[in-house]
Specification:
The strands form 2 sheets. A 6-stranded mixed sheet has the order 5-6-8-9-10-7. With about 260 residues, it is an alpha/beta fold. It is globular and about 55 Å long. Helix content is about 30%, strand content about 25%.
């Protein structure tokens, strides 16, 4: 399949015109090759993920996070340099669908809303017209079929994501009916989640003073977990719409690991 065709299909899922102005979604590293039979999908274009993709025979790689947000010379030996070396040596292009994927409310970012069967969906921060029932924008809120408590909600999440480093801050409601979430670092949408009537806001990378001051229950599941699952489902979607292309998902682990101290 032609690389340009693969990019067109990716951009149907993650339209570039929806990307934030500060973002660099799109082609990250070009290649001489024009065709590919195997596409690898990953969360981060890290040396580990790129190496794993190449070992799987990938001829094109789609990541969520960009290789870099600002242009940079490869003037030192670091992860950026190593990823460039791997891609250029193997003539494999890298494409990133970052905020272009985040804002497509009808795309893979809505996976949690679908798993929780949320109703009466609303986008927390609309950014423009969408291609489905919802506008493009960041974050979603919706109603559970039945109220649950925090432990029940955590159990529902644990069926899909790793909660080993998750934390909760703010007032914990006895009953949770309306759930808001934003993948990645979404705590800047805290007020939008409150305005949407949410009983709890699920996101990652919550800062200390945000947690200290919040009047809404904040469930910090980390930056990795929701987006890792989003990209796994993006790979499934791409395989479905593009059966002539083999799509493989490259899993990764969160860089944050729990500590279990040994009692002496």
């Amino acid at each position: 399949m032609h690389i340009a065709e693969i990019i067109t299909i990716i951009e149907q899922m993650a339209p570039l015109q929806g990307a934030a102005s500060w973002d660099v979604s799109g082609l990250q590293v070009a290649a001489h090759r024009t065709d590919a039979t195997r596409l690898a999908v990953c969360l981060d274009p890290s040396p580990a993920s790129v190496s794993a993709a190449l070992e799987l025979g990938a001829q094109c790689i789609l990541s969520h996070h960009p290789l870099a947000l600002k242009p940079s010379l490869p003037n030192r030996i670091d992860h950026y340099h190593e990823v460039l070396r791997l891609l250029l040596a193997n003539d494999v292009p890298l494409y990133a669908a970052h905020t272009s994927l985040d804002v497509n409310s009808d795309g893979p970012v809505s996976w949690l809303a679908r798993e929780l069967h949320l109703d009466d969906l609303a986008v927390l921060e609309p950014t423009g017209p969408g291609t489905g029932d919802l506008p493009h924008g960041f974050g979603l809120a919706g109603d559970l079929a039945e109220p649950v408590d925090l432990q029940q909600l955590a159990g529902m999440l644990a069926a899909h994501i790793d909660l080993s480093t998750a934390t909760v801050s703010g007032p914990c409601p006895e009953s949770i009916r309306r759930v808001a979430y934003c993948t990645g670092s979404g705590s800047s949408l805290l007020e939008e989640a409150r305005a949407a009537g949410a009983d709890i806001f699920i996101t990652g990378d919550v800062k200390y003073h945000t947690a200290l001051d919040t009047q809404l229950c904040l469930f910090d599941v980390g930056h990795h977990s929701l987006e890792e699952e989003m990209m796994r489902r993006a790979a499934i979607h791409l395989q479905h719409v593009c059966p002539m292309l083999e799509v493989v998902f490259v899993p990764s682990a969160s860089p944050f690991q729990p500590v279990h101290p040994r009692v002496l």
